[in-house]
């Protein structure tokens, strides 16, 4: 395949051009590398290399101005704004930067297209006055200020440009305007220079002026790269700009139009891949490269062009390992580097200017991959120690002093000291953090080269921030610093090193300008990406842009149409991938470019919809066999004692019992931002125990209960502090839960008072009574025990009651049974009955009960039901049940209890997972 660059050089060579005295001007620097390579293969004698520059470099040379960064332009523009705006009307730098960036883009466009500034600014001001005309003689302050802003645009523009010109610098548009103004002088001063322009498409007015002047002065030639298929089709956007140049430039009325080629209609292998999601596209690219390598091991003239540059990392991770020659033209965004997330976290917590830090932010900083290793010492990791302390003490908000009680590392102060809302102090702290990380990584430099490179790039970024603020002093607080930091970060990249002329080329769409490849893999060809669609980030209305020949989204789409078709023009093997999954932000519809390719019907196009190979999930319930070690662990658990909750855990799901009791796997402990249900339950239990404890073995009176009521708030507060540690109970949901706990206890005591007033007698026998009893099961051949704690045992009108408190909702139906054999099989229906009967069984074994007794549950969410007593129903339809527990009741229960324990300990019965 002959490339466009080769064709141009070959044509010049055939005309005996003196390459050493030529100046080649290209759309990008990247193309210069390929031009130099093609020239070396074409020229047969030793020559001095021609001058090869980008259009931006050439324009800077003409204008004698240096283009400065967008961030520095913003600072310089704010200088002009402050000089022209009365003090009381000035905006802070942070809010100014939001609209100023849009205005700078508009200044750029106005100048690049050589629009008379006075006319367009006066026109815009007149339009806005028409938009806000009013019958009221006096305009509101808001409307007046709004119209004043449009009147000032011209003043802002003139002052800003004057100050930039005095510094011999400018934004791109200003440089282009000055270059166009200076082109006559340049031609007069350099009549013998020869310029070759190649590969251009969409030219702004300044570029057109410069190139046409050089052409008319016979100081230049221009080579277009357009195909007949596009040029001769009056509605094909790939040739939108080229057709205009050919028609409107006087030069082409008497000179040939070089060149119109006929490469597009040549035979091509085009394959479309509809792939779900970005990761799917990356994997598909890897699969395509695997097939290409078979016929083209060195991947000569092969490029992966990314429509969406966010695909870079997934693509790099999907490239086959056998590919060892790789060149990445595009830079990796600095904001995607892990170190960026650390500074994002630090700015987020410090821009609030608070003295305390939210625990999740603290944990995120201390757990960060660049920070956690810095807390290592001989004994432990202090970062882990702080995180553990946060969880144990339930700390939701922490001050620096809180953190320093757990860590003496000076880095703690550096990370969490108040940055005093001072931008220079914040930058200084960031420098110190970078230095600390660097010292740690340098200890094992060979393994941390990439991380050290990341640190260097961020150090450079903060140096730039420091320099700008030293020069301009516009950043007054951390919030403004964060805004500018993000602006700088979004434009900074980490550049890759590679061999630009060998192996696989990975690049973005704009980097492909002027370059030709035999095999092209193009990703993300979706609407909203290629082309990017309607976006109007400008103060200049659409109709005003049309009137002044400024580019709109239509021209932007045409630029991408040209790049898309130019990539296909000389290629032989083309793979086009698009995302099939709809996405609100990036779209799921395939691009109009694909539809256009299919409608043209010039090439045969294969179309594949890629269905990802998703592994079939094993949905069968798990089984765990009881090994010898498991049996030994079971014997240990049995000897220490099964609790009612552990037995009901087995009933609910034997596999969960295995994980918790045999493997010792506990639920993950985390900070309770909102009081958890189990914490509420513990507080209510502990409060009731404390209230009733002084009255054990005493017949309760109404006065006793009233005395208890006066202590509720203090006890609830005490036990919440004990369980919830340093968690905040004074606001939000926690305050509501605190009040609910008080209400639960108050309502319970009110029911007790009501009972006593009705002539019933209540005598507390025991509170939180612990039981630990052996149980004789000869079939097992080893000791088994039961242990548990009964919330309350009392005598109600002379009948002993065994009561379990529940802060959740329980209904009377949950403490009734029909068939004794069901009590250990259905967790949802019978677990509550099983628990209270286990308590009764243990108490009787510890000290024989005076039958009959009652056992029941008090549900604080269903207090109106009172004590819901266990009972046996004769049939499902029976409205009554036998609520008295006798020796016969416990004998029936003991039989089922032993069957359950034998099943748990039976080596032949595995732990079989249940669907929960």
UniProtKB/TrEMBL annotation:
Name the UniProt record assigns to this protein: PD-(D/E)XK nuclease family protein
Gene3D superfamilies in the cross-refs: 3.90.320.10
Domain of life: Bacteria
Pfam families, A to Z: PDDEXK_1
Record SUPFAM superfamilies: P-loop containing nucleoside triphosphate hydrolases, Restriction endonuclease-like
Domain (PD-(D/E)XK endonuclease-like) ranges: 642-913
Organism of derivation: Bizionia gelidisalsuginis
């Amino acid at each position: 395949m002959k490339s466009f660059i080769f064709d141009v050089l070959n044509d010049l060579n055939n005309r005996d051009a003196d390459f050493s005295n030529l100046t080649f001007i290209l759309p990008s620097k990247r193309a210069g590398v390929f031009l130099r390579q093609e020239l070396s293969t074409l020229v047969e004698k030793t020559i001095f290399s021609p001058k090869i520059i980008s259009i931006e470099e050439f324009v800077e040379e003409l204008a004698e101005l240096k283009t400065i960064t967008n961030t520095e332009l913003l600072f310089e523009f704010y200088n002009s704004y402050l000089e022209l705006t009365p003090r009381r009307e000035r905006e802070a730098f942070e809010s100014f930067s939001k609209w100023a960036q849009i205005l700078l883009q508009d200044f750029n466009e106005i100048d690049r297209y050589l629009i008379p500034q006075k006319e367009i600014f006066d026109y815009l001001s007149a339009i806005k006055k028409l938009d806000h005309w009013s019958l009221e003689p006096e305009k509101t302050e808001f409307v007046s200020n709004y119209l004043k802003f449009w009147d000032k645009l011209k003043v802002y523009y003139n002052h800003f440009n004057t100050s930039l010109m005095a510094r011999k610098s400018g934004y791109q548009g200003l440089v282009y305007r000055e270059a166009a103004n200076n082109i006559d002088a340049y031609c007069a001063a350099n009549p013998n220079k020869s310029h070759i322009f190649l590969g251009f498409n969409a030219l702004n007015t300044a570029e057109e002026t410069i190139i046409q002047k050089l052409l008319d002065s016979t100081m230049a030639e221009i080579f277009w790269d357009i195909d007949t298929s596009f040029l001769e089709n009056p509605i094909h956007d790939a040739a939108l700009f080229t057709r205009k140049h050919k028609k409107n430039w006087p030069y082409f009325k008497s000179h040939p139009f070089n060149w119109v080629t006929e490469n597009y209609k040549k035979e091509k292998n085009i394959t479309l891949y509809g792939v779900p999601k970005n990761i799917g596209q990356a994997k598909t690219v890897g699969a395509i490269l695997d097939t290409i390598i078979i016929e083209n091991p060195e991947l000569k003239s092969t490029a992966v062009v990314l429509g969406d540059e966010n695909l870079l990392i997934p693509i790099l991770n999907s490239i086959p390992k056998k590919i060892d020659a790789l060149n990445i033209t595009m830079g990796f965004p600095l904001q995607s580097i892990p170190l960026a997330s650390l500074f994002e976290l630090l700015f987020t917590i410090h821009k609030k200017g608070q003295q305390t830090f939210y625990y999740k932010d603290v944990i995120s900083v201390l757990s960060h991959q660049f920070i956690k290793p810095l807390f290592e010492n001989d004994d432990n990791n202090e970062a882990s120690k702080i995180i553990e302390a946060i969880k144990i003490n339930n700390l939701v908000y922490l001050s620096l002093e809180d953190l320093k009680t757990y860590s003496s590392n000076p880095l703690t102060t550096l990370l969490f000291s108040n940055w005093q809302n001072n931008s220079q102090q914040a930058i200084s702290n960031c420098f110190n953090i970078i230095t600390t990380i660097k010292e740690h990584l340098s200890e094992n430099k060979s393994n941390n080269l990439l991380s050290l490179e990341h640190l260097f790039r961020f150090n450079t970024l903060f140096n730039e921030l420091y320099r700008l603020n030293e020069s301009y002093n516009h950043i007054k607080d951390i919030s403004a610093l964060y805004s500018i930091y993000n602006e700088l970060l979004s434009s900074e990249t980490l550049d890759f090193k590679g061999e630009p002329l060998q192996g696989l080329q990975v690049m973005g769409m704009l980097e492909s300008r002027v370059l030709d490849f035999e095999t092209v893999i193009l990703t993300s060809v979706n609407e909203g990406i290629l082309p990017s669609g309607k976006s109007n980030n400008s103060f200049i209305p659409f109709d005003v842009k049309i009137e002044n020949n400024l580019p709109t989204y239509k021209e932007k789409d045409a630029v991408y149409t040209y790049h898309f078709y130019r990539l296909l023009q000389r290629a032989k093997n083309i793979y086009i991938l698009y995302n099939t999954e709809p996405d609100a932000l990036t779209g799921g519809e395939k691009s109009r470019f694909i539809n256009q390719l299919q409608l043209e019907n010039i090439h045969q196009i294969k179309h594949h919809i890629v269905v990802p190979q998703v592994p079939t999930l094993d949905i069968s319930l798990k089984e765990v066999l009881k090994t010898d070690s498991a049996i030994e662990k079971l014997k240990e658990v049995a000897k220490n004692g099964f609790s009612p909750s552990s037995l009901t855990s087995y009933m609910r799901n034997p596999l969960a019992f295995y994980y918790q009791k045999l493997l010792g796997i506990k639920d993950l402990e985390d900070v309770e931002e909102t009081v958890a249900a189990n914490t509420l339950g513990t507080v209510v239990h502990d409060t009731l125990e404390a209230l009733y404890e002084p009255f054990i073995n005493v017949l309760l009176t109404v006065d006793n209960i009233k005395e208890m009521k006066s202590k509720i708030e203090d006890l609830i507060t005490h036990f919440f502090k004990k369980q919830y540690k340093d968690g905040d109970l004074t606001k939000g949901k926690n305050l509501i839960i605190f009040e609910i706990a008080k209400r639960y206890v108050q309502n319970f005591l009110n029911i007790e008072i009501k009972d006593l007033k009705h002539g019933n007698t209540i005598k507390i026998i025991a509170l939180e009574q612990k039981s630990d009893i052996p149980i004789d099961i000869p079939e097992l051949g080893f000791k088994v025990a039961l242990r548990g704690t009964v919330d309350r045992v009392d005598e109600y009108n002379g009948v002993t009651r065994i009561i379990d408190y529940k802060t959740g909702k329980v209904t009377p139906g949950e403490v009734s049974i029909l068939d004794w054999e069901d009590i250990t099989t259905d967790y949802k229906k019978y677990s509550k009955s099983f628990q209270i009967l286990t308590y009764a069984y243990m108490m009787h074994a510890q000290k024989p009960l005076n039958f009959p007794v009652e056992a029941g549950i008090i549900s604080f969410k269903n207090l109106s039901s009172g004590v819901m007593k266990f009972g046996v129903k004769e049939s499902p339809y029976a409205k009554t049940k036998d609520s008295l527990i006798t020796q016969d009741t416990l004998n029936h229960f003991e039989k089922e209890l032993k069957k359950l324990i034998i099943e748990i300990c039976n080596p032949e019965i595995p732990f079989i997972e249940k669907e929960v």
